[in-house]
Amino acid sequence: MRGYLAPLFLLLAVAQMAAADEHSSPIGRKADGFSLRDFRGKVHTLDEAADKKLVVVVFLGCECPLATLYAPRLQELAQEFDSRGVAFFGINANSQDSLTEVGAYVQAHKLTFPVLKDPGNVVADQMGAVRTPEAFVLDQDRIVRYWGRIDDQYLVGRQRPAATREDLKQALEELLAGNPVSMPEAQAVGCYIGRIPKRKPHGEATYSNQIARLLQQRCVECHRPGEIAPFPLTSYEEVVGWGETIREVIDQGRMPPWFASPEHGKFANDARLSDAERQLIYDWLDAGSPEGDPARLPKPRDFTVGWQIPEPDQVLYIREEPYDVPAEGVVAYQYFMVDPGFTEDRWIKAAEARPDNRNVVHHIVAIFVPPGAKLRGGARGAMIGYAPGMPPNRFPEGAAMFVPAGSRILFQVHYTPNGSPQKDRSCIGLVYADPSEVKAKIGGGMAPNRLFEIPPGAGNYEVTSKHRFKEDVRLVNMTPHMHLRGKSFRYEAEYPDGRREILLDIPRYDFNWQLRYQLAEPKLLPKGTTLRCTAHFDNSADNVANPDPTKAVRWGDQTWEEMMIGYFSTLPVEEADSSAAANSPDEPAAE
Predict the structure, then answer these.
(1) Alpha-carbon gap, residue 255 to 341, rounded angstroms
(2) Cα 377 from chain centre
(3) What is the pLDDT of residue 21?
(4) Does pLDDT of 580 surpass 60?
């Protein structure tokens, strides 16, 4: 399962009903006491806050993206309300999180309130906790008066520019003022607590014999230490803890990330699970997640460490010193101009944009700017990039991307803060081809529309663009690009004989995943064919990721602005290779 990130990211889970019904409200119930240890072994009890007016109990997870993002905010609230008689306790009930990992989480976010381990999720069951992060506010009699989210900024794979309602803080202010909580429940959004299965394991499917093999083939490439996904799926203990999360993200089509309609086109990198694979996972979870015989575990899969392309001939960094990424907030796209010292023309046969800090790098675009070319909005040169789910550029034998002498490289990097200050020094690696061995120039371009204006509140605004091919080509891949208001995207071919064919349909566009859709076989597009792109945007208040639904939106580089680009790549007809790897656009085509 290719995960982010990011970002964000992103793998936010399904309810685990074995211990608590998500719709059973704890409001008005008296909380039981607890006696739990922190990562240093010190015992903490609810009674130690006996002199406090209010107590906040918040359930956390070490690898949950939202629990990570909210950690600094919880620390700020704990400090702000400490002098006003409010105590904070964090509780980790995840079966997959060790005390060592809890300690690392506390130290990474500099938390000063106790964060306690709940073995067997006993306290989580007593309180009816379901997700992380999830907060309970107890009054002086230790009656639950508020239950739910911290605020409404972060959602599943999306976020508002800022919170519009600070639910936890508002509840504390109201209770301290002697008033009832105006909104006592606000559904928490986050990862589900990794509970120990309560069902007795049974059935033929086991982790050791079937599930570990399936995860190795479909998920572990990203869900392993040091890679982009927020948690590993490389051991039985980890997988059991995330079991119901896995069920939800598969059910909702969020994992593995793939957004192309199956009705149009066949793609070499189609990441969808088969019906049989999905059912195998469901059956295993329903059977209590049996481990099976560890002796039957498959041999760990070997993954390429470091560069995914051959050893680069040249590595170019965004800057000499790392860039400082703040813990929170929205970071505008950062631009870095680098002179690679190209004193002669270059032919590139493989290229890879490599994030230095995958925790905060959402995407990288490296544009080779030819001498005299405009930097923004005008002609641009060859381009390579990185985003979650996007493979590096590996061109077919004898094919290469041309970059003229004197070109510079403009890096555009999109950073997504993850809850703690970070540093990044991303780079690109280039493998050069001998000009005498180049038989085909990698072609392609983009079909953009820069002249649109999306009205305020428009929920399904259409923008189109097109590109007409002046010679026969074979289409290799397509990469749609929009920003936070992007809703859907479609590529169509209009052939010279009047026929029309849908090549790629994305009914649910997701900005968090910049996927390149690689055709299983290159598609012949005869001279005179028009590639038409149709995008729809949601600038309404219903789009929770919308930075401001009251404003008209035009073209712009930043995420609070919009773009509409249909990138594509091609091969010459005479040199087409049906096994061509994915690549990036060469020179932009006129609209």
Answers:
(1) 42
(2) 28
(3) 39
(4) no
Residue type, 40: R
Which residues are registered as beta bridge partners of 453?
Answer: 554
Angstrom CA distances, 292 to 53, 195, 446, stand at 50, 19, 51
Beta bridge partners, 562, equal: 555
Exposed/middle/buried for 498, CB within 10 Å: 0-12, 13-18, 19+?
exposed
Residue 256: is the preceding peptide bond cis (ω within 30°)? yes
* 375, 376, 379, 385 alpha-carbon torsion, rounded to 10°: 80
Whether 342 contacts 406, CB under 8 Å: yes
Nearest to 381 by CA among 393, 368, 371: 368
Number of other residues whose CB lies within 10 A of the CB of residue 279:
12
3-class SS at 525?
strand
Instruction: Give Rg (Cα) of the chain.
Output: 26
Q: Which of 244, 174, 199 is nearest to 11 (CA)?
A: 244
The H or E element containing residue 116 is strand 115-117
* Chain position carrying tokens 């392309």: 309
Closest CA to 45 of 116, 99, 107: 116
The residues with which 117 forms a beta bridge, in sequence order, are 37, 92
Contact 14, 239 (CB under 8 A): no
Nearest alpha-carbon partner for 535 in 585, 482, 494: 482
Longest CA pairwise span in the chain (Å): 82
Residue pLDDT, tens place only, 30-60: 999 999 999 888 999 999 999 999 999 999 9
Q: What span, in angstroms and rounded, lies between the C-alpha atoms of 66 and 463?
A: 33
Other C-beta atoms closer than 10 Å to the C-beta of 207 total: 26
Distance CA 582, CA 390 (A): 9
Positive/negative CA dihedral, 232, 235, 241, 242: positive
Phi-psi region of 100 (alpha: psi -120 to 50; beta: other; left: phi over 0): alpha
Residue type, 340: P
pLDDT, greater one: 329 or 98: 98
Q: pTM here? A: 0.72
Angle value at C-alpha 259, between 257 and 263, nearest 5 degrees:
135
Question: Beta 185-186 vs 144-148: how paired, if at all?
Answer: parallel
3-state secondary structure of 217: helix
Helical H runs in 118-160? 122-127
CA distance 119 to 94: 8
What pLDDT is attached to residue 382? 64
Question: Which tokens belong to 438?
Answer: 């180049």
Mean pLDDT value of segment 243-270: 88
Among 376, 458, 416, 367, smallest CA distance to 559 is for 416
- Nearest Cα neighbor of 409 from 351, 486, 361, 496 is 351
Whether the Cβ atoms of residue 531 and residue 445 lie closer than 8 Å to each other? no
Q: Which two tokens stand for residue 486?
A: 């992007």
Q: How far apart are CA 573 and CA 35, in angstroms?
A: 71
Cβ 549 vs Cβ 541: under 8 Å:
yes
Which one-letter DSSP state was computed for residue 332? P
Per-position DSSP letters for 353-395, written without gaps between them: EE-S-TTTEEEEEEEEE-TT--SSSS----EEEE-TTPPPEEP
